[in-house]
From TrEMBL:
Pfam families registered for this protein in UniProt: AMP-binding, AMP-binding_C_3, PP-binding, TRI-like_N
MF annotations from Gene Ontology: transferase activity
Transmembrane in keyword set: no
Name of the protein this chain belongs to: Acetyl-CoA synthetase-like protein
Domain Carrier: 547-624
Region entry Disordered, spans: 885-904
Presence of keyword Phosphoprotein: yes
Residue spans crossing the bilayer: none
Key words, A-Z: Phosphopantetheine, Phosphoprotein, Transferase
Length: 1171
């Protein structure tokens, strides 16, 4: 077994070159026009080029007893890698400087590192930074040979490197430097011992306190392909492009050296390089959410490794829904110490192995400062003590908050040296506000200012400094207001304490794009003082004549001329900013004018939009007239403005209750309720009748906030223009018709029928105890018209079993969760929480016209004959027959391969049943609801077993693995029973798995995240039954099939499904609609995967409920289809990390499952429910 933690990187390369010389280590992209090529570098190629570079260094510098630093700034190419390896072999060390350094910063690093040799890339002109450094610090300059010369190394003699780890553990592998965020940058040597800690991470043992979580490297597998957008002058660039590929056997992809990392490059690499792991600078991660097409292309990858700075939580949450975010934290001096892999939904929290020696000291209420203390494990697991061997404890000065419920989970809050301390002693941690405000598309960066002042301010750097129109400034203020909502009251920013950076002074930034706070604040020191002086003068008054436009013009000229004398003599049509007016003087002038004239509506944006004296005076005159008119009107007709405002509110409320016709995505869903059951514990001594009344009031408020919840769904009238058979319409009652008693919620006392809640909990809330028919308030397949919502609160001793049914034609799964959140939040509001006002709910959340509008707006509308026929695999309706529906069927052009150069596979084949509601089993059989548990430990074992069996370069998500495991064994149990009963299977008979997929990330960013209508497509995977159930077929093979079929879902495919559904002549499901899982006899199934949803996202509050008002368990109602569906459910991940699998089985199938050794190796029977 390799000596992990004591291996030397040059020796790893030499051993690979000897054992596997043709293994590709690096692939360098070479893109031109429509040509996408890669130059592959094998282990032999790299080893020979390294040796040739080492001989060149030896011949240029000779041998020396001391290790000499070699300074280098160059393009992002293989030169960094060759120089790093070769320097170690030749007794030197590469010192990588950031090209973004100021001259003084670069010189400080060179001086501190005692560096006297500069390596210059061949055939490249030195940059201004390099020229100035060499002018001020005489150094020997070596011109590095070209890459072509260095890789022409077939005849090169091996350069021996036979040192032991003990010999060189304290010697530098390379040298980088700090970012200089808090001063001048300082060199940081990375010793071989420090680098070895990256290798030793895999040795971290499971111990008490690790929460059962794996080390962060457990997700990195030999053969994975990695791309990093970090420059190799940055620590993350060296880690991802040199250290990780060497230590973990990765193939590293480098972009073209002359192309800066961008979303365009990411999209090309995702398409042509099959990247498994993305390592991205934070700003690039933030941009992904604005490019859904690019984001969709990353979905087949394993994860994005986010490091180097904070990413926006709101943005990253959306990305994490598509591709996992692996959030790592580390330091230049210590690298990544003890990071563990948290659950995917906890991506923004960090967890650390106990061997890390970390301590979090509370420095103020709820805020903890990060310390590290040396322990006996430091040589392998505490890299920072290789850099600081004389230290026993180090204050990392990072601030964290702890998770409210999960042990050893911490979220980064900022740095203690970033804290803004106001004159009253109040401390503000600026990171949250800055990162949120910076998500505005027009903002390049933001800094909270105000140390030593009475009020915090915000300095904003715009991407386009000249664009300061009213709409833009209002939009920015709206973002700041949202940031204020999530901030502590004392942290909130005031509108008149917002300033804009000067275009001539861009924020100072690091290589990774983050702002150098200290350097930028020094750059703006005078500006900040003037800003606060202007605030102090804002209360000044002077006489201003407002009787005419001319008098206002003269008065404004006098005000502005106090700060900009040139305005006194300037033309009224001269641009004020060209005369010397700046953002600080604008704030000061507006404050004085507002004070003198009493115009509360006056804002700096009025000057930016009217930047001449004439224009601004005209604007002021109109504001004065409006103010006078308003005063006169209020004197004559008190309440007029209030009545107009009230009228507008009433109109808006009426609009929310207008009838709506459902769109093709909605009509593609069959008539059925989506049912969920939530198990909610009650606080001790709570009266169920009181709880029910409160739930009623909460639901009533929810129906006012979200009127559609109180509506009904019914067939559209045949007389409507454009009517199709099967069209549906939502009708919402007027607000006046709302009664105190909400008919959609029923009460049922089951305290004498069912055991207490504590007993249900002890039985894992299994269906064996609670029969769905007992708690269900309505028919699954209702007759129209029917209520959109039907719910029932079932009470047992100590708890409430809350069952909700929301009609599937109006709401998909994500929409159902939004509806439940609105209800739960409304209950909290009724209980006295004013912040629970559902302000996050988008006004267009129930606008079912929106998908069609966006579909056409973004240019996705096309003729049905232009759609790839394979797209029919993603919808529930069957393709029309050409002889029946004429042009709607597949035309010759569609079936011509040249018409679709990359055609989708033909839809899978099954014995289609087209009666809806589906008919009960003709033999009278009914399935038993059965639940199995995969514990967190066995889940890890399953994932490790699958990952170990994969070919190099293949990556699978945990979701892929669980779905494949479930599908294979559920079908295999049925298959074995069928074989015993005499059924034979041909090689053509397929098992079809249907996976409903949320397509919001693919469809458009214009669709609100809280949109509740149907945004679903079916991912249909198919495999021959014999193969799926064969002992020769592995779960890994099945999971790879699921990953392959999921990759077919693209922006184009989801829009093409809308085109197909829109083209249908009828939405009547009879004879035209079919799911493969309909009927009990086939070898097909549908899986509803809820493993990433956390029940705690729904909180009714703690007025009556325990557990914070969140359900302890949330389950789908699946017994409703026990005689007509083969429906499988993966339940939300449990608090202990385990996953429950729920399915319906016949008795003989259950026997097969519990006796399937491959299945029971990981899954344990919890309970079999009632038929």
């Amino acid at each position: 077994m390799p000596e992990y933690g004591r291996r030397l990187i040059p020796q790893i390369l030499d051993s690979i070159a000897a054992a596997n010389p043709h293994r590709v280590l690096y692939s360098v992209a070479a893109f031109s026009d429509d040509c996408y090529d890669f130059h592959h570098i094998t282990a032999k190629d790299l080893a020979q080029a390294v040796d040739k570079t080492a001989w060149w260094l030896r011949s240029s510098l000779g041998d020396a007893s001391n290790i000499r630093p070699l300074a280098y700034i160059g393009p992002h190419d293989l030169c960094h890698i060759l120089l790093t390896y070769a320097s170690v072999k030749a007794g030197c060390t590469a010192l990588f400087l950031s090209p973004k350094n100021a001259v003084e910063g670069a010189l400080a690093v060179l001086s501190a590192a005692d560096c006297h040799i500069w390596v210059q890339p061949s055939q490249q002109q030195p940059t201004s930074l390099i020229e100035q450094c060499l002018e001020k610090r005489p150094m020997r300059v070596l011109e590095m040979p070209t890459l072509a010369e260095l890789f022409d190394a077939e005849s090169t003699e091996p350069f021996p490197y036979e040192k032991s780890f003990q010999d060189v553990a304290r010697q530098p592998f390379c040298i980088l430097h700090t970012s200089g965020t808090t001063g001048v940058p300082k060199p940081v040597p990375w010793s071989h011992g420090l680098v070895g800690t990256m290798d030793a991470v895999r040795l971290l043992p499971p111990v008490e306190g690790d929460g059962g979580l794996q080390p962060w490297t457990s997700l990195w597998h030999e053969g994975d392909t990695l791309y990093s957008s970090f420059p190799m002058s940055h620590g993350a660039g060296i880690i991802m492009d040199i250290i990780m590929p060497s230590l973990y056997g990765l193939r590293c992809v480098l972009g073209p050296s002359d192309v800066l990392p961008s979303l365009n490059l990411v999209e090309k690499l995702a398409t042509h390089a099959r990247i498994d792991i993305w390592s991205m600078v934070p700003c690039l991660v933030d941009e992904l959410v604005d490019s859904p097409d690019t984001l969709a292309r990353l979905e087949p990858s394993k994860f994005i490794c986010a490091s180097g700075g904070p990413v926006s939580p709101d943005v990253a949450c959306k990305i994490n829904d598509v591709i996992r975010i692996l959030n790592l934290t580390g330091t230049t001096e210590g690298l990544f110490i003890g990071n563990l892999v948290v659950n995917r939904q906890d991506w923004q929290w960090f967890s650390f192995h106990p061997y890390s020696g970390f301590e979090f000291k509370e420095v103020e209420t709820g805020v903890f400062e990060h310390w590290v203390h040396r322990n006996e494990h430091w040589p392998f697991f505490q890299g920072i003590f290789h850099t600081f061997p004389d230290k026993q404890s180090i204050n990392l000065k990072d601030l964290y908050v702890k998770h409210p419920t999960k042990q050893n989970h911490w979220a980064f809050k900022g740095r203690s040296d970033d804290v803004v301390v106001l004159s009253n002693g109040y401390k503000i941690s600026p990171l949250q506000v800055e990162s949120y405000v910076s998500t505005h598309p027009a903002i390049n960066g933001a800094l909270v200012i105000g140390t030593g002042k009475r009020q915090a301010g915000l300095l904003i750097e715009l991407k386009e400094p000249t664009q300061r129109g009213i709409e833009l400034l209002d939009s920015i203020w709206n973002t700041i207001e949202k940031a204020n909502e999530i901030s502590a009251k004392q942290d909130r920013l005031l509108r008149n304490y917002i300033a804009f950076a000067e275009s001539s002074k861009p924020f100072v930034r690091t290589d990774k794009g983050t702002v150098k706070r200290h350097a930028t604040l020094l750059l703006y020191a005078d500006f900040i003082e003037r800003f606060y002086d202007s605030r102090d003068r804002a209360t000044e008054t002077m006489d201003m004549d407002t009787t005419s436009r001319e008098s206002i013009e003269n008065s404004v000229r006098q005000v502005l001329a106090r700060s900009v004398p040139a305005i006194l003599e300037a033309s009224v049509d001269t641009d004020l900013f060209s005369l010397g007016l700046d953002s600080l003087l604008v704030i000061e002038a507006v404050s004085i004018i507002k004070n003198c004239m009493g115009i509360d509506k006056l804002e700096p944006s009025h000057i930016y939009a009217n930047p001449t004296l004439a224009k601004f005076s005209r604007e002021l005159f109109q504001l004065v007239l409006a103010l006078k008119q308003s005063s006169d009107t209020n004197l004559l007709e008190p309440g007029t403005n209030q009545r107009e405002s009230h009228l507008k509110r009433l109109i808006d409320q009426q609009k929310a209750r207008w009838s709506q016709k459902l769109n093709p995505f909605d009509c593609a869903q069959p008539n059925q309720y989506a049912g969920l059951v939530m198990y909610l514990p009650l606080r001790e001594g709570t009266d169920p009748a009181q709880v029910f009344a409160w739930l009623q009031l909460g639901l009533q408020r929810a129906m006012n906030v979200f009127p559609a919840l109180g509506g009904q769904i019914m067939p559209a009238a045949a007389s409507e223009i454009g009517y199709k058979e099967g069209d549906l319409r939502v009708v919402i009652p007027p607000q006046a018709a709302t009664n105190d008693t909400v008919r959609q919620l029923k009460f049922k006392d089951l305290s004498r029928t069912l055991p207490p809640f504590s007993v249900l909990r002890s039985k894992s809330f299994s269906p064996s105890t609670v029969c769905e028919d007992m708690i269900q308030p309505c028919d699954t397949f209702p007759a129209y018209p029917t209520d959109i919502v039907a719910a029932q609160a079932n009470f047992v001793d100590g708890g409430c079993i809350l069952v909700t049914n929301i009609h599937h034609c109006c709401f998909d799964g994500c929409g159902v969760i939004v509806a439940l959140k609105v209800w739960a939040e409304s209950c909290r509001f009724i209980a006295g929480d004013p912040s629970a006002n559902c302000s996050w709910l988008d006004p267009e959340c129930f606008n079912h016209s929106l998908p069609g509008i966006v579909h056409e707006l973004e240019g996705n509308k096309k003729q049905v004959h232009e759609v790839d026929p394979g797209t029919w695999a993603f919808v529930g309706f069957l393709p029309p027959e050409p002889e029946v529906d004429g042009h709607l069927g597949a035309t010759p052009a569609q079936n011509d391969p040249s018409y679709h150069p990359n055609p989708l596979p033909s839809p899978p084949v099954w014995d289609k049943k087209t009666t809806w509601p589906p008919l009960p089993d003709p033999a009278g059989r009914a399935l038993t609801t059965t639940t199995f548990l995969i514990t967190s430990e066995k889940l890890r074992n399953l994932q490790q077993a699958i990952s170990a069996s994969l070919n190099k370069g293949i990556c699978l998500s945990l979701s892929d693995i669980v779905q494949a495991f479930f599908w294979r064994h559920a079908i295999r149990a049925r298959y074995r029973v069928a074989r015993i009963q005499g059924h034979t299977f041909t090689s053509e008979e397929q098992s079809v798995l249907e996976l409903p997929i949320n397509i919001r990330p693919y469809f458009s960013t214009l669709i609100p995240s809280t949109y509740t209508g149907n945004m679903l497509t079916l991912n249909r995977a198919a495999m021959a039954v014999e193969k799926l159930c064969s002992p020769e077929t592995s779960v890994a093979e099945v999971a790879c099939l699921l990953r392959e079929t999921a990759a077919r879902i693209t922006v184009q495919v989801v829009h093409d499904t809308f085109t197909l559904l829109e083209s249908l002549p009828s939405y009547d499901p009879q004879g035209r609609f079919s799911y493969a899982d309909m009927g009990l006899d086939g070898m097909h199934a549908m899986i509803s995967n809820m493993m990433l949803f956390q029940p705690r996202e729904i909180s009714f509050g703690d007025a009556f409920f325990a557990n914070g008002g969140s359900p302890e368990v949330l389950q789908p109602l699946i017994e409703r289809g026990k005689d007509c569906f083969r429906f499988l459910a993966i339940l939300p991940t449990r608090s202990d990390g385990g996953i429950e699998l729920m399915l319906g089985t016949l008795p003989e199938e259950l026997d097969m499952l519990v006796n399937d050794d491959e299945f029971t190796q990981y899954a344990t029977l919890l309970a079999a429910g009632q038929t």
